[in-house]
């Protein structure tokens, strides 16, 4: 009894000091806790607001809350404190990072992102690193310190070690509250935002009003992709799809100036959540392209505008105006008269181009209503940049309290809706994020926010407390709700791994839910086994376009010739699936040419309905053969010791996107060759680490094992072999 009282007293001691950090203990004991981490200067300037936020979490959210205050010297210092809190008996479910908290800039870990493949040797460290709080919330990942940025002292560079796990599994959630501007502006913004977060608990709404938008030059260009997404959304957010006034599934084609429609839609009073899928930059959402018109004069005006914009861009870079006019006239086959009004129309052109994008300055003129924003775009949540879009949505007079986005570029074909249905069950934004985190994904704002739960299932509690209870998840899988089924399948996979492949395959075959089938395929993709390959072939014929799209993409990563005939059939049966057809061409180029040619000829001959079948077939084979020629050229350049080093290096890096499986034996010979330059050997080994599910993977694993145990190899080569082997042992396909 005395021991229990002593532990309780320690838990609620007013303040403790760990490594000089002041830790104010929770004021109330709940089942789980959140750590509020703030720098000392920010805390002094915003103390009443932070204390009120802490009190709200403990009195209205059922969360114990630590308050950690310190003048942080580096990111490791923050991580050490969070790690100590995580080890305490009171479960740490998340961390809220307020103010000037060190920013981990991660290197040597691009395989943990969905799309980044930048050359870390060629570009400067800030540009080629990933700002990521996985450094804090995934305690399994191991890093080596590299340096602190000299110009931006909050940035700390770390590289993922070869001994570290090579996949993301966040132990708790994290989010940033770090507005832009000078110190006084930042402190005022933090105070106002925290007051908004506290007030948001006065009235909790169910998630029943949703806005989605798909922008230009993205997967939305495929109408079959955009239309199918509506069916998936209807299942994820059933309350919003009960009435046509409660959801809007918008496409950039719907308005000539979609920007102003969106700025209006964002202010609808009852809007709960908005999802934007578009191209983006740190401070920009691209929402319109050249508007399609039947009026030839309008089309001409648009073309002239963009040619003039090209002119101004090149002149701004220092090129001579006369030479720019000559270059662009030849490029676009236009006369010099197109540039006559380039100065007089500068202002009107600028306004017209501005109307195609939403930028941070626009947020000062509206009050965004969604409590939660999703930015499925590149860089919109780059919290370390001086001006970023997610901050603009949160730190203003609107109602938005949390946003999910990415700190760098993101994969266009990412499965955005993964387990998003959990939000309708009142799951916290942060708890959802831990299920789907990548290196670049980021929460901005209050991660503890959640919508009201109109159902009897307490999914928040299950996700926090039932992690290791297989029977609980097996029972939940029997639910009729696809949202619960998807969560259950993910939990079962976390417990059983590849052993649950038969269950996933059976569920894929039997489920009527596109989201459940997509969950099964995604989990099976982490096994790379024969059950996965069987389902992959079925997935090419699925009713949901995204499943067909991911199947095509992941078949390319497998490379087995067994998929040749199904790919050819898919191209014949679904020529309107633009993105899938493109990926199918790429996949077929990775396979045996003679077998591909034979399959194309046989199936096109049998398709008697094709007009001009010979011309159609010739076009197909030329596209495929062009990509195969690219592979052959790449190998020649890599193998040639007399080739320019830059050309050899470029060819090696091309393997990261094009997994030319048949080249693996030849590439391994280069990796094992002690006479080759170290950079070439490590580059080849790193590139082979992207062959996650390749049918050639056993050869790569065997070679990496031998290289890593041969002490005659350079240390850098051994390290790369160890890391590549680890990457091919456990991976994530996006």
From TrEMBL:
- Domain of life of the organism encoding this protein: Bacteria
Mind listing the UniProt keywords for this protein, alphabetically? Answer: Signal
Asked if Signal is a keyword of the record, the answer is yes
Entry keyword Phosphoprotein: no
The signal peptide here is 1-19
Question: Which InterPro entries does this chain map to?
Answer: ARM-like, ARM-type_fold, HEAT_type_2
Q: Gene3D superfamilies of this UniProt entry?
A: Leucine-rich Repeat Variant
Indicate what this protein is called per its UniProt record. HEAT repeat-containing protein
């Amino acid at each position: 009894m005395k021991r229990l009282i002593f532990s309780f007293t320690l838990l609620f001691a007013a303040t403790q000091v760990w490594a000089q950090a002041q830790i104010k203990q929770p004021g109330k004991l709940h089942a789980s806790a959140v750590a509020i981490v703030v720098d000392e200067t920010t805390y002094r300037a915003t103390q009443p607001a932070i204390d009120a936020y802490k009190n709200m979490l403990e009195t209205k959210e059922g969360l114990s809350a630590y308050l950690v205050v310190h003048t942080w010297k580096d990111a490791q210092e923050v991580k050490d404190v969070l790690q100590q809190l995580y080890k305490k008996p009171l479960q740490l479910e998340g961390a809220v990072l307020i103010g000037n908290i060190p920013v981990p800039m991660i290197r040597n870990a691009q395989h943990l992102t969905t799309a980044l493949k930048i050359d870390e040797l060629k570009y400067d460290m800030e540009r080629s690193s990933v700002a990521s709080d996985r450094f804090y919330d995934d305690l399994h990942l191991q890093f080596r310190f590299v340096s602190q940025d000299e110009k931006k002292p909050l940035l700390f560079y770390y590289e993922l070690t070869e001994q570290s796990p090579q996949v993301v599994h966040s132990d708790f959630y994290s989010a940033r509250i770090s507005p832009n501007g000078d110190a006084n502006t930042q402190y005022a913004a933090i105070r106002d935002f925290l007051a908004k977060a506290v007030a948001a608990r006065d009235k909790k709404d169910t998630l029943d009003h949703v806005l989605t938008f798909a922008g230009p030059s993205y997967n939305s260009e495929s109408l079959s992709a955009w239309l199918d997404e509506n069916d998936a959304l209807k299942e994820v957010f059933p309350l919003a799809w009960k009435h046509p006034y409660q959801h809007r599934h918008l496409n950039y084609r719907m308005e000539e100036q979609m920007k102003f429609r969106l700025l209006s839609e964002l202010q609808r009073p009852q809007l709960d959540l908005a999802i934007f899928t578009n191209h983006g930059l740190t401070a920009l959402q691209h929402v319109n392209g050249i508007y399609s018109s039947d009026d030839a004069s309008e089309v001409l005006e648009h073309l002239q505008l963009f040619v003039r914009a090209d002119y101004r861009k090149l002149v701004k870079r220092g090129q001579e105006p006369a030479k720019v006019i000559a270059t662009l006239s030849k490029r676009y086959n236009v006369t010099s008269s197109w540039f006559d009004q380039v100065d007089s129309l500068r202002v009107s052109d600028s306004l017209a181009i501005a109307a195609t994008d939403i930028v941070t300055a626009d947020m000062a003129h509206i009050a965004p209503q969604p409590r939660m924003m999703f930015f499925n775009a590149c860089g919109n949540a780059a919290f370390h940049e001086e001006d970023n879009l997610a901050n603009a949505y949160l730190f203003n007079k609107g109602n938005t309290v949390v946003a999910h986005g990415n700190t760098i570029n993101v994969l266009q074909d990412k499965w955005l809706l993964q387990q998003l249905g959990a939000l309708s069950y009142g799951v916290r934004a942060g708890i959802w994020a831990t299920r789907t985190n990548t290196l670049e994904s980021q929460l901005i704002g209050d991660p503890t926010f959640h919508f009201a739960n109109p159902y009897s299932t307490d999914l928040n509690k299950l996700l926090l407390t039932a992690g290791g209870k297989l029977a609980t998840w097996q029972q939940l899988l029997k639910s009729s709700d696809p949202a619960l089924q998807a969560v259950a399948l993910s939990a079962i996979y976390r417990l059983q791994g590849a052993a649950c492949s038969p269950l996933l395959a059976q569920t894929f075959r039997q489920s009527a839910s596109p989201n459940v089938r997509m969950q099964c395929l995604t989990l099976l993709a982490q096994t790379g086994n024969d059950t996965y390959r069987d389902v992959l072939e079925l997935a090419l014929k699925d009713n949901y376009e995204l499943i067909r799209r991911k199947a095509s993409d992941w078949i390319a990563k497998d490379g087995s010739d067994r998929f040749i005939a199904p790919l050819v059939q898919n191209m014949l049966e679904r020529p309107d699936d633009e993105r899938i057809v493109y990926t199918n061409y790429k996949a077929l180029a990775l396979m045996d040419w003679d077998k591909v040619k034979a399959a194309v000829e046989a199936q096109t001959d049998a398709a008697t309905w094709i007009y001009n079948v010979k011309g159609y077939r010739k076009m197909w084979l030329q596209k495929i053969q062009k990509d195969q020629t690219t592979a052959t050229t790449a190998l020649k350049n890599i193998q040639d010791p007399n080739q320019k080093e830059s050309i050899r290096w470029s060819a090696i890096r091309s393997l990261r996107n094009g997994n030319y499986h048949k080249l693996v034996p030849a590439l391994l010979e280069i990796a094992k060759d002690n006479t080759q330059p170290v950079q070439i050997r490590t580059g080849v080994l790193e590139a082979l680490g992207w062959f996650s599910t390749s049918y050639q993977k056993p050869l790569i694993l065997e070679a990496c094992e031998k290289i890593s145990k041969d002490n005659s190899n350079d240390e850098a080569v051994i390290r790369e072999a160890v890391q590549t082997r680890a990457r091919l042992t456990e991976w994530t396909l996006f």
